[in-house]
Design goal:
The protein is α+β, with helices and mostly antiparallel strands. The protein folds into two domains: 1-43; 45-181, 3-Layer(aba) Sandwich (Endonuclease, Chain A). It is 50% helix and 8% strand. Strands 1-2-3-4 form a four-stranded mixed β-sheet, with helices on both faces. The protein starts with 5 loop residues before the first helix and ends in an 11-residue tail after the last helix. 24% of the residues are buried. The structure holds zinc ion. Zinc ion (ZN) binds next to loops.
């Protein structure tokens, strides 16, 4: 398909923004350059994504990465749970930001706590973030139509104070999905479940894991 990855697109947008803005202050230009570099460097194994990967791995979940054949190239794909996980940057994907249409040339947008749209060339950024949000929605719709569940994890939910809670909640959701999908099977094999109950509980030394 020759489609560039979302992080490459983000990097290009930041560079384009920098080149197009003759009136950008040097501080803002510096910021744009830095975010372009960051986006380029972070094209693989970004920190938030690694937190999710390690957190789920430690909890026993197994997954594939950047599935190229699925819409939106989900960051993690858990086939057993029929679930795609997207780890989204709060700025690029406009977390908690409602993007209104431009009304009478007036643009009224409230920044959210984790997505602050730059004041300079605001319309450029609003258009860019709006496109990203629309694309996210489209891709998740396609995945749902194919029978996949989607979980979006936001960067701000992975800061140290919230990280464990977020990972626990993802694990809970995955297990819930699995149970729902397999409820019919559990009902058809009650004997087997009883047998399993007779087995001793596993005693893992989690300190060593
Ligand atoms: Zn956020």
């Amino acid at each position: 398909m020759g489609k560039s990855s979302k992080r490459q697109r983000h990097a290009k947008a930041a560079i384009k923004q920098e080149q197009s803005g003759a009136c950008i202050s040097s501080a803002e230009s510096e910021q744009a350059r830095r975010s372009a570099n960051m986006a380029a460097i972070r094209s693989k194994d970004t920190k938030p994504e690694m937190i999710v990967r390690r957190g789920l791995w430690k909890r026993g979940f197994r997954y594939r990465l950047n599935h190229k054949r699925l819409p939106g190239h989900p960051d993690l794909v858990l086939k057993k749970y029929r679930t795609c996980i997207f780890v989204n940057g709060c700025f690029w994907h406009g977390h908690n930001v409602a993007l209104p249409q431009i009304d009478n040339g007036q643009l009224t947008i409230d920044n959210s706590a984790c997505c602050k749209i730059p004041k300079t060339n605001r319309e450029f950024w609003v258009a860019k973030i709006r496109r990203n949000k629309e694309r996210d929605k489209e891709e998740q719709k396609k995945l749902a139509a194919m029978g996949w569940h989607c979980i979006t994890v936001w960067e701000c939910e992975l800061k140290p104070s919230k990280r464990e809670e977020t990972l626990e909640s993802i694990a809970f959701t995955l297990n819930h999905i699995w149970l729902q999908d397999h409820q019919a099977k559990v009902v058809s094999y009650p004997k087997r479940e009883e047998e399993d109950m007779q087995m001793p509980m596993a005693a893992e030394d989690i300190e060593k894991v």
